[in-house]
Amino acid sequence: MADFTEHVNQSNHNLLFLEKINGFDNCYDWQVTTAFYIAVHFVNAHIASQINHHYRSHVDVDNCLNPFNGNSKCKLSEEVYLSYKKLLMLSKRSRYLCNDKIKTTETRAFFTYDKHLLKAIKNLDNLIHFLNQKYPGKLIKSRIKMRCPGLVQKEIKYIDVLK
């Protein structure tokens, strides 16, 4: 079972990977997916720190973090929980070409564009900000640099925005 530090290290490894693939045009799907898995390891670090447990499914992690679930053990704030859920849905869109809305009857392919990366980065930054307040100085090993249309430095705390 991975512990807090191992999950944090994996998140930071994934952050560096995100920075590297950010330079490739039209790889928004991989960048969004990577952003989600950065979040996965940060929330798993949080869970490991709080209850020393490792969940194997996204559903179990969701139940543990969900502020609306009376039995959740590692609740996030509502805003941060919704950021995590949005990252999950954006990642599903990227991986399966499906609509990132939970309920839909659409059958066409849904591709991932720069606007989805922008949403993913903002939601990831929100999650990191929340967890960084709980674990000051223990999450981000080094800031990464990214380009993304519409990304504004004053809105982002943990990523350096390149023009």
* The named CATH superfamily: Nucleotidyltransferases  domain 2
Order of helices and strands: HHHHHEE
Instruction: Return the CATH architecture.
Output: Up-down Bundle
Query: How many discrete domains?
Result: 1
Number of strands: 2
The fraction of residues assigned to DSSP E strands is: under 5%
Give the C-alpha Rg.
15 Å
Return the CATH topology. Answer: Four Helix Bundle (Hemerythrin (Met), subunit A)
Instruction: Profile the largest sheet.
Output: 2 strands, parallel
Q: Give me the number of helical elements.
A: 5
- Low-pLDDT stretches: none
End-to-end distance:
40 Å
Biggest sheet, spatial arrangement of strands: 1-2
Helix content: 55-70%
Mean pLDDT: 93
